[in-house]
Design brief:
Blueprint: H1 2-6, E1 10-16, H2 20-35, E2 41-47, E3 50-52, H3 69-73, H4 78-86, E4 94-96, H5 98-122, H6 133-152, H7 157-175, H8 187-203, H9 218-242, H10 257-266, H11 268-282, E5 286-291, E6 294-299
Parallel strand pairs: 1-2, 3-4
Antiparallel strand pairs: 5-6
Helix pairs in contact: 4-5, 5-7, 5-8, 6-7, 6-8, 9-11
Length: 305
């Protein structure tokens, strides 16, 4: 069958680690004899077993120690499972457990959250202190090399992803600094980093959901417009309710300390409503983040508790 589709040779042949001998040895002998060649396959990738926690037996339908796809998807997403696999070396056995899937879910959330922050920063919706451009570009260069070297070294996806998460961590440190209105902006640097991360994750089969990526169809585009309006309105209500100082721009005249305290108490119900709206949206995978006087939103895979 493989010869009919791929011809007399293969570049990569995969299979479980239990098939090395005799199955694949026999396959090599038969195909090299059939095609009169000294090397039928260039590379074999033998995957380790997936097993349940506290059970050394590999998952097997005949044994019954399996989790069906339908059962899995009730609690996790396909992207979370892909991250779960990528955070382990392919030839090692993997323990299917809640803790390992939580780790994968958090890693995916970290990437998604950063890409949304990057999108907000590029659009001017996220303020922070001036970025250290040279430091971020140097880190991007180091990450590119590390990811390439890791994938070239027996397809070490775990090491590659750790390098990307390290880059995200460095960016988050700088993006999450106290907002500074007069700070110089570096949208090109953040855009370059975000584009690189999206490219790698897409190549690895992980769809990182972001606002920018949601524009693929009309329904998502409409939702994006609605959420932009909702967060803008919520931000105005929240700023009105906070009454940040005695000279707040939302007030017609300066307030003394007693009046300021009274205003905040009167408008406390508005802050409560803003928090309730944020909490309700989080249950359907939309996260609202308050950033000083501004507020942003993003899609997010639900992380099971």
């Amino acid at each position: 069958m493989s010869s009919a589709i791929f011809g007399p040779s293969l570049d990569i042949h995969t299979g479980g680690i239990d098939l090395v001998f005799p199955h694949h040895d026999n396959e090599i002998a038969q195909c090299e004899a059939c095609h009169q060649t000294d090397q039928w396959t260039n590379y074999f990738l033998h995957a380790g077993f997936l097993h349940l926690k506290d059970d050394e037996e590999k998952m097997s339908k005949s044994i019954g120690n399996v989790v069906s796809v339908q059962e899995f998807l009730k609690q996790y997403s396909a992207n979370q499972f892909r991250m779960f696999c990528l955070l382990h070396k392919y030839r090692h056995n993997i323990e299917y457990s809640h803790d390992n899937l939580q780790q994968a879910s958090h890693a995916l959330h970290t990437l998604t959250s950063f890409l949304n922050n990057a999108d907000n920063y590029v659009k001017g919706q996220l303020s922070c202190q001036s970025l250290e451009d040279s430091k971020l570009l140097e880190k991007l260069g180091e990450t590119r090399k590390s990811v390439y070297d890791s994938l070239a070294d027996d397809f070490d996806t775990k090491k590659a992803l750790n390098s990307i998460l390290g880059l995200v961590h460095e960016c988050n440190i700088q993006l999450n600094t106290k907002p500074q209105e007069s700070a110089a902006r570096s949208p090109d640097v953040i855009a370059a980093i975000a584009t690189y991360i999206k490219s790698v994750m897409t190549s690895l089969g992980v769809e990182v959901i972001s606002k920018q990526g949601s524009l693929a169809n009309d329904t998502s585009y409409t939702l994006t417009q609605v959420m932009d309006s909702v967060t803008d309105f919520r931000s105005k209500v929240r700023n009105f309710a906070l009454v940040r100082s005695t000279n707040d721009a939302n007030e017609p005249k300066p307030l003394d300390k007693a009046a300021l305290k009274e205003k905040r108490k009167e408008r406390e119900i508005l802050l409560t409503e803003c928090d309730e709206l944020r909490d309700k949206l989080s249950t359907v995978g939309i996260q609202i983040k308050d950033r000083g006087k501004k507020c942003t939103w993003e899609y997010s895979d639900r992380i099971p508790t």
